[in-house]
């Protein structure tokens, strides 16, 4: 199952690109409806990722020592960070 870390990293890269596009649109809006759509997507993405941070906190607070950086990773990368932390918990300690 070596493809899973590759897919997680690919997903994180794509998510980061999406965040950068939405942030760029806030600073220098694109023309036309694209700017409006990106603003709406930015709001939805922020809400979804806040929800995922709450899920992360509820599920992993007893399993892992969590830092503020862990919460930031989940906020930025969403489900891909959740999958990475899940793998960390599911992997038997050796």
Automatic annotation (TrEMBL):
Entry annotated with the keyword Cell division: no
InterPro entries: DUF1145
Keywords: Membrane, Transmembrane, Transmembrane helix
The keyword Transmembrane helix is annotated on this UniProt entry: yes
Membrane-crossing residue ranges in chain numbering: 6-27, 34-60, 66-85
Matches recorded under PANTHER family: INNER MEMBRANE PROTEIN (PTHR38775:SF1), INNER MEMBRANE PROTEIN-RELATED (PTHR38775)
Full protein name: DUF1145 domain-containing protein
Species whose genome carries this gene: Shewanella vaxholmensis
């Amino acid at each position: 199952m070596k493809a899973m870390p590759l897919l997680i990293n690919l997903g994180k890269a794509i998510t980061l690109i999406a965040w950068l596009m939405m942030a760029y649109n806030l600073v220098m809006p694109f023309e036309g409806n694209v700017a409006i759509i990106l603003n709406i997507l930015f709001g939805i993405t922020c809400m979804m990722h806040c929800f995922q941070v709450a899920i992360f906190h509820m599920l992993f607070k007893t399993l892992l020592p969590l830092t503020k950086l862990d919460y930031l990773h989940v906020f930025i990368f969403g489900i891909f960070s959740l999958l990475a932390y899940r793998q960390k918990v599911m992997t038997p300690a050796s």
